[in-house]
Design goal:
The chain is of the alpha+beta class and 156 residues long. It has one domain (3-153): Glutaredoxin. Helices cover 26% and strands 15% of the residues. A four-stranded mixed β-sheet has the order 2-1-3-4, with helices on one face. The two termini are 27 Å apart. One of its GO terms (biological process) is cellular response to oxidative stress. The active site is at residue 35. It comes from Actinoplanes digitatis. Belongs to the glutathione peroxidase family.
Length: 156
Amino acid sequence: MTIFDVDIDALSGGSADMDRYRGQVVLVVNVASKCGLTPQYAGLEQLHGTYADRGLVVLGVPCNQFGGQEPGSAAEIEDFCQVNYGVTFPITEKVEVNGPGRHRLYQELVGDGPDIGWNFEKFLVAPDGEVAARFGPRTEPQDGEVVAVIEKLLPR
């Protein structure tokens, strides 16, 4: 099983259809609207704009487990992302990323690794569904190390 086999809903409702991303590079990020790291949405949107044509999918996954920093409804989250950052990449329903209610997506991403530390932790998933890299919350989306792994995973 990989993330491509997981059922998760889109923020706007209905299935996010993870299977459609099979064969692509996916950057999964647990996001929050009221966090000091929230400006990373701009960098995520920039990565999406730069690499989507080559097969990168940026996937935002809202989570309210860290300081209650994603308290809004789906409509409020969507509005916030559009108005403040012009987000065009897909965003899923709000889920739990740690603890007994951890969503299956994060069960697959984390595996036996440590729990998610905070908002904006990043997982780069290879086209075969394997986690290729994990980056901490303070690692900016355009950090050279993140970009290097993206470039390595994407077709030339």
